[in-house]
Amino acid sequence: MVASSPPMKKIAITTLGCKVNQFESAAFVSALDSRAGVELVDFPGRADVYIINTCAVTSRAAAQSRQLIRRALRANPEARLVVTGCYAQIAPLDIIDIGDTPVCIVGNGYKHRLVEVALADTGCDLEMHMGDISRKQEICPLTVTRFGDRTRACLKVQDGCDSFCSYCIVPHARGRSRSLAPEKAVAQAELFAAQGYREMVLTGIHLGHYGRDLAPAASLPGLLASLLDLDLPVRYRLSSLEPTEISDELLRVMAGSAAVMPCLHIPLQSGDDRILKRMNRRYPAATFATVVENCLRHLPDAAIGVDVLVGFPGEDDDAFANTYRLLDGLPVTSLHVFPYSKRPGTPAAAMAGQVAKAVKEERVALLRDLDHKKRVAFALRHLGTVRRVLVEAPRGGRLRGFTENYIPVGFTGDPGLVNQLVDVRLEAIGDGMALGSMVGGAEGKAG
Q: Global pTM?
């Protein structure tokens, strides 16, 4: 009699938060894909194991993390529940209190062990794989062989943060800055290119600090130059960079290659010097303005997105007016606006002058209206030009994609062009994007 095979173990994964979390969850998927007897299913369908990669950057993200845990518990109270990510790092006891089901909690410094924990046959009653994240000196070794059904992959090259802005819980959740060795970053980039990804986003918690902890020291411009030397058929983007870390060297590398997209994301947070000091940000508003102008000298067509934190403690009408005035006058192209969220354990949570919710909502609305105007003005400026677009999956009867400088574009074409580079003439604005028509055919190599 032939022994029957054991049933497949169904595993569901869900992810909140930043591109770093997305990369790490992709590493979990990649590792599970290689295991026999494992079937990946959609969250929150019924599964034998739930893996929840949480976020804690705002109180809303923490609440969403708790909500996902409850959804998994409702879907199958008998399942193995593995919780990781920033909320798991800073609030493990709160997670244990959510329900009666035992939980395996895996801290950010132990994510390389998560798949082993998820597939273990032993129970996980009060099981924690945590450690002191502040003592971690090396980045978690994670490899991604599958980054979902996307044309763009995130390449995590750095983790942790040394800045300790007064409002931010992330350094407590992620630890100190740690970098991926250049040869490992290159190997991951080659792996992504071999899989057919046409665009990579270099990402980290504090990307501008890349390489400072390595021996010998490395740098982000040096890593980018090494990747460009490979001449892979991909385009590169950079995730968020602090204003004081956008050097002339980096801008020269970006300007010197058509494979590096002219697109920068620079956190401002406030345009008022007094508030910037209370935030423990290390630049005045005038320096931020100078950085933006310098970026555009090197990259005249660059998109420059800006993070703004509204309603920080002590932000009065004059301070907000300074922020609005600065952003209104700068040639930035988009704003990512967030209301200040009190995070227990940060200095800002105990500061005097907490801003009322209604005031924050009013200021957020004003800046989001300015964001809309900036985005439309930037797209209008490029009407009549031909831009290179990486084609993404069609929606609403149109192919979609982004130009080099991250203008969203819709156009008609063959769905078989997905993941190809095409030239598109931008002709109009509608449906929250530029509308255009293809010029010529697809090209087989990025850059």
A: 0.92
